[in-house]
Automatic annotation (TrEMBL):
Signal peptide: none annotated. Transmembrane segments: none annotated. One of its GO terms (cellular component) is cytosol. One of its GO terms (molecular function) is phenylacetyl-CoA 1,2-epoxidase activity. NCBIfam families: PA_CoA_Oxy1. It comes from Malikia granosa. One of its GO terms (biological process) is phenylacetate catabolic process. This is 1,2-phenylacetyl-CoA epoxidase subunit A. Coiled coil: none annotated. It comes from the Bacteria.
Length: 336
């Protein structure tokens, strides 16, 4: 979901600096030529340090977003209204855990360790998508997260399947297929609620009202305030700008809202014949930065739940390691 990372530093209070290159000219020229030819960069290839750092930041922030993204919906597994919805939600939350694992693995190929990345997340140093720092107040939130949050994620992530870094691009192919299922299950759950009682319809509208603007902010700050996007695009990491992705998302979502029968909470939202796109109102960027910088309604709760889950799982990691060691010893004995 999560190209906001191009504009969000992991260092508190520090803006991302423009990239200065002091790399060897010949290697740099070869790297640039590969990028210009739309080729892939693989882990064993030479790459400029700034490219490596940018990818580590983006892929690890993306991985953290998948893992923390399990929490708001995970809260509803025990309260899902039927066995069918419970099974779907468990599968979806499990998918997000899988996405996190592919992405941590992709980031590890750049020379950073899983422990380093997890330490950065658990100490509050690393960022993750701001959308997961809002509460899930009613069952319709689960549907709206599928429809809008996973929908925004798809918009962001489909172009990442063509990212210049091979392991990231390949991980995204499967992630996107699963995100597409997530989006549809959310939309379908909302369609069912909209055919239900007035109270159910009000729950859906309430969830849409709370999530709409936050989903638009997920695409990151406006292009004019996102100078590093240009470098990301030059490197073939980012293919479409924040504002263009946001516009594509709005244009795709307005007709879906009509079919669903909900109102999107923006009085300025209207079709612009000349542009061939929907115009929309002002996003509250102050609120976005407040949340990114740790002051959203659920930042502290999400982080402490995540740290507790990690600590509670320590015995599983130890048991798995002990089992692997035993198997290795057995294999060596048989070979001797
Ligand atoms: Fe995901
Ligand atoms: Fe998802």
């Amino acid at each position: 979901m999560y190209t906001q990372s191009f504009s969000v530093s992991d260092e508190p209070g520090k803006a991302l600096k423009p990239v200065a290159s002091t790399e060897p000219a010949e290697l740099m020229a070869r790297f640039d030529a590969r990028i210009d030819a739309d080729g892939r960069i693989e882990p064993q290839d030479w790459m400029p340090e700034a490219y490596r750092k940018t990818l580590v930041r983006q892929i690890s922030q993306h991985a953290h977003s998948e893992i923390v993204g399990m929490l708001p919906e995970g809260n509803w597994i025990s309260r899902a209204p039927s066995l069918k919805r419970k099974a779907i939600l468990i599968a979806k939350v499990q998918d997000e855990g899988g996405h996190g694992l592919y992405l941590y693995s992709a980031a590890e190929t750049l020379g950073t360790s899983r422990d380093q990345m997890l330490d950065a997340l658990h100490s509050g140093k690393a960022k993750y998508s701001s959308i997961f720092n809002y509460p899930t107040l009613n069952w319709a939130d689960v549907g709206v997260i599928g429809w809008l949050v996973d929908g925004a994620a798809i918009m962001n992530q489909v172009p990442l399947c063509r990212c210049s870094y091979g392991p990231y691009a390949r991980a995204m192919v499967r992630v996107c297929k699963e995100e597409s299922f997530h989006q549809r299950q959310g939309y379908e759950a909302l369609l069912v609620m909209m055919k239900g009682t007035d109270e159910q319809r009000a729950m859906v509208q309430d969830a849409v009202n709370r999530y709409w603007w936050k989903c638009l902010a997920m695409f990151g700050p406006p292009d004019a305030d996102s100078p590093n996007s240009v470098q990301g695009m030059r490197w073939g990491i980012k293919r479409i700008s924040n504002d263009d992705l946001r516009q594509k998302f709005i244009d795709a979502t307005v007709p879906q809202a009509k079919v669903l029968g909900v109102t999107l909470p923006d009085p300025d939202l209207k079709w612009n014949e000349e542009r061939g796109h929907y115009d929309y109102g002002q996003i509250d960027w102050d609120e976005f930065w407040q949340t990114v910088n740790g002051n959203g309604p659920c930042n502290k709760e999400r982080l402490s739940t995540r740290v507790k889950a990690h600590n509670d799982g320590q015995w599983v990691r130890e048991a798995a390691l002990a089992h692997a060691r035993k198997q290795q010893q057995r294999a060596m004995k048989e070979a001797a």
